[in-house]
Design brief:
By secondary structure, the protein is an alpha+beta fold. The protein contains four helices and five strands; from the N terminus they run H-E-E-H-H-H-E-E-E. The chain has one domain: PAS domain (Beta-Lactamase). Strands 2-1-5-4-3 form a five-stranded antiparallel sheet.
Length: 111
């Protein structure tokens, strides 16, 4: 992965087409520390999630349509973007990007 991902203050987790966790930047490792942190590398995402989440991951992989939502936990709000990634026209796997955002977020509508 590019060096800039290592120092980016967002959590990036990348899995291959078999749902195996292939990369976690330091923020992702810290975010998922209570679940094993860097020990999650090489683990299958399907084993880390409930049935609803597993079905959603399969849908993302099959359709290419991403899933984006916000969560609030521990006094922090985050936007989560989960998407399929591709390389040379072939499905590579899944990526999750988690960004901490303010509890009250400005919204601009531009024409």
């Amino acid at each position: 992965m590019p060096d800039w991902m290592e120092g980016l203050d967002v959590a990036i987790t990348v899995a291959d087409r078999d749902y195996m966790i292939a990369y976690m930047n330091p923020k992702a490792t810290a975010t998922f520390q209570s679940y094993g942190g860097s020990a999650l590398l090489g683990k299958n995402l399907m084993e880390c999630h409930n049935e609803r989440s597993r079905e959603l991951m399969k849908k993302i992989m099959e359709t290419g349509y991403p899933h984006t939502y916000t969560i609030e936990k521990g006094g922090k709000k985050k936007i989560i973007h989960q998407a399929r990634w591709e390389k040379d026209g072939q499905i590579g796997g899944l990526v999750e990007i988690s960004i901490e955002i303010p509890l009250e977020l400005e919204h601009f509508k531009r024409d």
